[in-house]
Amino acid sequence: MKYPESVNILLLGSGGREHAFAWKIAQSKRLARLYIAPGNAGTAVCGTNVDINPVNFAAVKQFVLSNNINMVVVGPEEPLVKGIYDFFKEDHQISNIPVIGPSTVGARLEGSKDFAKDFMIRHRIPTAAYRSFTKKNADEAKAFLETLKAPYVLKADGLAAGKGVLIVDSLETAKAELDTMLNGRFGHAGDTVVIEEFLSGIECSVFVATDGKNFSVLPVAKDYKRIGVGDTGPNTGGMGAVSPVPFADAKFMDKVVSTIVEPTVKGLSADKIDYKGFIFIGLMNVQGDPYVIEYNVRMGDPETEAVLPRIESDIVELFQGIAYGGLDQYELKITPATAATVVCVSGGYPGDYAKGMEIKGLGNTADSIVFHAGTTAKGGKTFTAGGRVLAVTSFGDNITDAVGKSYKTIEGIGYEGKYYRTDIGKDLL
Q1: 3-state DSSP: the chain helix, strand, coil percent, rounded to 5?
Q2: 3-state secondary structure of 7
Q3: How would CATH label the architecture of 130-196?
Q4: Closest CA to 9 of 27, 36, 41
Q5: What is the pLDDT of residues 333-364, one digit of tens each?
Q6: Nearest-angstrom CA–CA distance, 85 and 238
């Protein structure tokens, strides 16, 4: 089955990832109309923003029916974890409209780190040794910490907006942090805490599109999570990304595909988990061997802002392959050029920050693609509306060239409290 030659698409989300998707979808020869719910000031240029909360499934359904939507593309994890795929599949009025994203059970790969680790162990996918604990067996958790070597890795089991992972150097600090997590630091996301051994290496993000049987490996990226230069300070939702990644060469990627991607897709099928969407595999390169740190069930942010621009083929055709099968027939074309994304954030982020600052200079960005993350438009002006404000992506012959263009563009953009890391990609040079 295929959808019509000319399609209406509803894209859910409001961040930089969604602007990148909207930007790419808008280039498709197959697109009729694109709607983004709720979108931001940047997505409004690519399609029509609609004021709908992505987790208000009843409102999403009504919009889909009223606007002849042929496909729903889900950007963020929350609607997936809360079951939008199942909601559509089980409602006879909209069950014929594909949702790009996994079922509720499939979304548990991100929604529950304990579920994900169990899946990896069961399907012999390389990952760090671990155990899971709740408040009831906190003493056992502390005893388990004593069997590990520093540094210590503690992960909130549930969704914590990308901030639920703590890596600490001291055993006593690890025990104290464990108590704070089990006592509500991350809300119910921390009711269960996964403690795992620390893997020493360098990280990268591998993105896979799958129809549940076949898969296509998208461009690899590396992101930068901490707020400060030199990977210092607290974790954020992401401060930048580069693609491709020099150390993710053909030999390494062959290992990734054979030991991780193939067993993951086959494992989903063996477990009868309905999965038609994207898998984000966070990897650690440990002396040339890949280990899974985590799964996400959607594209990453800000990696998407570096990955999608490198894809030259039609993304709506990719969606069709995901939704209806036959992804093995899709020809993925990727530019060899390097893409570098630098994120501009609000002063104070990831802590408290002000909103409503006017952004100036957005018209002078010819050498870059400026993806909006936390922005809003009013009276012909654009204002900050979030912690991560803009993701500036540029192409170059190498990392130095691409990053340099992004920094040059950022220098011409101004708003009160603007902050960005000045070392994106430097660790790869």
Answers
A1: 30, 30, 40
A2: strand
A3: 2-Layer Sandwich (3.30)
A4: 36
A5: 999 999 999 999 999 999 999 999 999 999 87
A6: 27
